[in-house]
Amino acid sequence: MLNQFQIAGLVTHLFVLLLGVGGLAGIVPLARGRRAGLGLVLMAVAMTIVVLEPRFHFGIAGVGIYVGGFLTGLWLLLGPERRS
């Protein structure tokens, strides 16, 4: 059974995931467009791993996915834009 903090974390990151998918689909107007949408999706997935880790014990694979996904998502969301 998930505790109240895990449930709150999952609901919060579900909202971030929906914003990201909306940005990828062009439904939600994000400042950096689809790039920001992909970043939000990666960050939401990474944070979901952190929330569920105590229950499923992902181990080193979970740590790698979390760090890689979160940092890549953050870079897509906030990193420098390409100039055309």
Helix content: over 70%
Runs in which pLDDT lies below 50 for 5 or more consecutive residues are none
Strand content: under 5%
Content-based structural category: mainly alpha
Rg measurement, Å = 14 Å
Mean pLDDT: 93
Please describe what this structure looks like.
There is one protein chain. This protein is mostly helical. It has helices at about 5-25, 35-55, 60-80. Helix 1 runs antiparallel to helix 2 and helix 2 packs antiparallel against helix 3 (about 60-80). The protein is flat and about 50 Å long. The mean pLDDT is about 95.
Keywords:
mainly alpha, 84 residues, 0% strand, 3 helices
What is the secondary structure topology, with strand pairs?
Blueprint: H1 4-25, H2 33-56, H3 59-78
Helix pairs in contact: 1-2, 2-3
Offer a concise description of the structure:
79% of the residues lie in helices and 0% in strands. The chain has 84 residues and is an all-alpha fold.
